[in-house]
Design goal:
Low-confidence stretches: none
Helix content: 25-40%
CATH topology of the largest domain: Metallo-beta-lactamase, Chain A
Number of strands: 9
Number of helices: 8
Structural class: alpha/beta
Number of domains: 2
Strand content: 15-25%
Oligomer: single chain
Distance between the termini: 24 Å
């Protein structure tokens, strides 16, 4: 949000090049500096560029800070296509909160609200601009891309979308990836998540692994979305959700990522950083 004397940014970018290009674009709109940077969650494509927001206060959920510090800077694991990250420095949030925080752009409030439990990650937050009726959802929503719940909870995401996001009277929703949209994307995303949960239940009953279940699953209407191999990671998480009966359970994340590569015919996963 652009104010008279300062800018509030929702998320950074993943690489030095992209983040500098984003800041250059901001500079074409206003000469005001970015004074506050809100991270919707800890994933690197939203936080690795934090350090390039010189002088900005970085705001995020307390788990966003701890998860970012635990994950560290990107390493070449042979899972994704090679990326030129640039001269990254880890810069976690320096102002954290447990439930919600209100920041201000001039006299306009901006509410940053923790969704209450695991969904896309353990620390997802939405950013609500009540005066303009705009809602930033982070990666709770992907417009045109496949949702990814490996590090969160499939059942948790369904709960968050139905009991929280769907009830916010947003005129415009800004997803974590893809073009701004309206509430229709919430229902579309819920349809996919329920589809995955049903596939996971059938696969577990048949004694199949998540990868085996994915290979036997027809994606149907979802086949044209970017990154269809995320089905495998989502099934790993759905299996854990079902086994945990509502309680979070750990998932072998590196193993799930390797299964995604296998589903992808052995090709490294696409990276749009």
């Amino acid at each position: 949000m652009v104010g008279r004397s300062a800018v509030v940014s929702v998320d950074a970018c993943s690489t030095e090049r992209r983040t500098r290009a984003y800041l250059d674009r901001v500079a074409t709109v206003t000469s005001a500096p970015v004074r506050q940077l809100v991270n919707t969650h800890h994933h690197g494509d939203h936080t690795f560029g934090n350090s390039f927001f010189t002088g900005a206060t970085i705001i995020g959920h307390e788990r966003c800070r701890s998860e970012l510090l635990a994950a560290g800077l990107p390493a070449d694991l042979g899972i994704w296509e090679p990326v030129d990250w640039g001269a990254l420095e880890l810069a976690p949030p320096t102002v954290t909160f447990s439930d919600r925080i209100r920041v201000w752009s001039d006299d306009s409030p901006i509410d940053v609200v923790y969704v209450g439990g695991p969904a896309h990650t353990t620390n997802d937050c939405v950013v609500w601009l009540p005066e303009s009726e705009v809602l930033f959802c982070g990666d709770l929503l992907f417009n045109g891309g496949t949702p990814f719940l490996l590090m969160g909870s499939l059942t948790g995401a369904i709960s968050v979308l139905t009991t929280k996001v769907a009830l916010i009277p947003a005129r415009v929703i800004v997803p974590g990836h893809g073009l701004p949209c309206d509430h229709e994307l919430v229902e579309t995303t819920l349809g996919y998540l329920r589809f995955v949960l049903d596939a996971a239940a059938r696969g577990r009953d048949a004694g199949l692994t998540p990868l085996e279940t994915a290979l036997e699953t027809d994606l149907g209407d979802y086949a044209g979305w970017l990154d269809p191999e995320r089905l495998v990671g989502n099934l790993h998480r759905a299996y854990a959700d079902l086994a945990g009966e509502g309680q979070p359970r750990d998932v072998d994340v590196p193993g799930a990522l390797r299964d995604m590569v296998a589903f992808n015919g052995g090709r490294a996963l696409s990276c749009y950083a």
